[in-house]
Design the sequence.
């Protein structure tokens, strides 16, 4: 079963407390199964970038190896996102 962008957003939002996820297609060098995601959650507060990304990968579980081939992540706390969005 292929996951829709909405399915991936739901997995992330269900797996990370108070998360808001925006998942979109990016253009890969050979195909268009590359995805990008912006995830905002207070759960990221105090975590390193690697730990933040690990939370997202954990929320996606086995889909990271079966359905999702490339995922470019941007993770923010709500405060960081406010600054980033400016």
Sequence:
């Amino acid at each position: 079963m292929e996951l829709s962008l909405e399915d991936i957003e739901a997995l992330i939002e269900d797996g990370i407390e108070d998360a808001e996820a925006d998942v979109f297609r990016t253009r890969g060098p050979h195909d268009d199964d590359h995805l990008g995601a912006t995830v905002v959650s207070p759960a990221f507060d105090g975590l390193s970038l690697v730990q933040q990304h690990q939370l997202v990968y954990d929320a996606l579980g086995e889909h990271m190896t079966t359905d999702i081939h490339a995922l470019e992540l941007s993770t923010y706390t709500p405060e960081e996102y406010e600054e980033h969005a400016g």
Remarks:
- The chain has one domain: 5-85.
